[in-house]
Write a structure and sequence with these properties.
Oligomer: single chain
Largest sheet: 3 strands, antiparallel
Strand order of the largest sheet: 1-2-3
Distance between the termini: 33 Å
Helix content: 40-55%
Length: about 150
């Protein structure tokens, strides 16, 4: 079976009239990840979508859509606006927990100069970009006790 990923998508996107100063390999890697994640979620919900959506043409279509929305229409996702300091972080928004990240580099409890790092972070996404969020002890315990999956 042929493998086709973000690197191949980036090469294919170069064939379109896009600004490669904006559509960098990192930009494609990020959006490729969230497009595949979205399409896979749709297919898990409705198997009949597999043939229509699980192909490179649909991914290229989605990448071009995102390029157009961000660069031609100047519409940006909630997280991108916050990350680039174009909006406040206290604004109401709906984010999805896309990953639970366990911190393997826990600091020593007895080291007062270096406080203990949180054991768990959450990766949050708006479907276009993601951030790692530090969570409080109550949520840390909920994740550890598998009450928050």
């Amino acid at each position: 079976m042929e493998t086709w990923g973000s690197k191949e998508a980036y090469q294919e996107l170069k064939q379109y009239n896009i600004n490669t100063n904006i559509v960098t390999e990192d930009w494609v890697v990020n959006h490729y990840k969230w497009i595949v994640w979205k399409i896979a979620s749709m297919i898990r919900t409705e198997n009949s979508l597999y043939e229509e959506y699980w192909n490179k043409e649909k991914i290229i279509e989605q990448l071009l859509f995102r390029y157009n929305k961000e660069n031609n229409l100047r519409k940006h996702s909630a997280l991108k606006l916050i990350i680039e300091k174009d909006n406040i972080s206290t604004k109401y928004m709906v984010l999805c927990v896309s990953n639970i990240i366990k911190n393997t580099e826990i600091k020593n409890d007895n080291d007062d100069e270096n406080p203990k790092e949180p054991e768990i972070y959450l990766e949050l996404t708006d479907g276009w970009y993601s951030i790692n969020a530090q969570i409080d002890n109550i949520l840390q315990d909920a994740v550890k006790n598998k009450k928050f999956l």
